[in-house]
Amino acid sequence: MSDTEIILHHFDASPFAEKVRVALGIKGLDWRSVEIPMVMPKPDLTALTGGYRKTPVMQLGADVYCDTQRIARELEARFDGPALYPEGQQALCEVIAAWSDATLFVPGAGLSMGTNLDLPEPILADRFAFFDFLDRDTLPQRLPALYAQFRAGLQRIDDMLSDGRPFLLGEMVSWADAACYAPVWMCRGNIADADTLLEHMPSLAQWEQKLLALGHGRRSSLTADAALAISRQSQSRVRQEIAETALPHLEPGVSVEVSPEDYGAVPVAGRLLRLTQHEVVLARSDERAGDVVVHFPRLGCKVVAI
């Protein structure tokens, strides 16, 4: 075991985890799978993250990476294989991924919860509390509008591919493809009338099959206890850095809280280690996980001194 072994804490039904699994397939990587609960509490995960509960989380030794955009950046920086970002296209990939998270995932989540009659009540209750952009009482009345918005977003993908390009940015598959594929994958598995939503989009259908064929890399199972033991036995190599342009202006070592700005805004407290235009990094200690370093993307996260 080493800090170069990829450990993904996830559950199979998560569309955000599917983004990362596809990225692992694009790069053809080996990785360990730790299955986490779909609903709170998640004591093994929060021992690593300090409270962050979104799925997935990637662990490399004692380094813990939260949010799919931060995970993708680390996969690209650390591991060989086909690039997630074609040369000069990283910012564009991330912009497209952010568009997908808002334009496709938000209505897709509403449709999944409002039309999937197989979802158990504990999952529904957890998700309605988690997704503060959805109201359980009014969701049935909103379904026609959500169908329309989701379908319009899918049409944009089909439009991008309509010139015959195999992938969204051209000849090379990228993080943009993984990010936009995940809501389509979610639609197939969770939304009633998925076939109707996805019909009459031949370019999207062909692209979907290409992404499906990439697979998820080489997966093997790992227990949560084993992952925590790896964390305790490892040491992060991250060094402190506070960029001159970083806002807010904070000193290294100050106690801060970091939380997502969209939903699931559970704050994570720790000692500030790095603050740049791309990431926020906290050092924290946990009885079960040991000394860990938790990485967040700068974009989309709130940083507050405490």
Walkthrough of the structure:
There is one protein chain. Strands 1, 2, 3, 4, 5, 6, 7, 8, 9, 10 and 11 form an eleven-stranded mixed sheet that branches. This protein has helices at residues 15-27, 43-49, 68-78, 90-115, 121-130, 139-161, 175-190, 194-198, 202-214, 224-233, and strands spanning 7-10, 30-35, 57-60, 63-66, 218-221, 241-242, 255-260, 268-275, 279-286, 290-297, 301-305. The chain has a domain at 90-201: Glutathione S-transferase Yfyf (Class Pi), Chain A, domain 2, CATH 1.20.1050. It is globular and about 55 Å long. Strand 7 (255-260) and strand 8 form a beta hairpin. The model has no long low-confidence stretch (mean pLDDT 96). It is α/β, with parallel strands linked by helices and 306 residues long. Helices cover 44% and strands 19% of the residues. One of its GO terms (molecular function) is transferase activity. Keywords: Transferase. It holds the Pfam family GST_C_2. Residues 4-83 form the GST N-terminal domain. InterPro entries: Glutathione-S-Trfase_C-like, Glutathione-S-Trfase_C_sf, Glutathione_S-Trfase_N, Thioredoxin-like_sf.
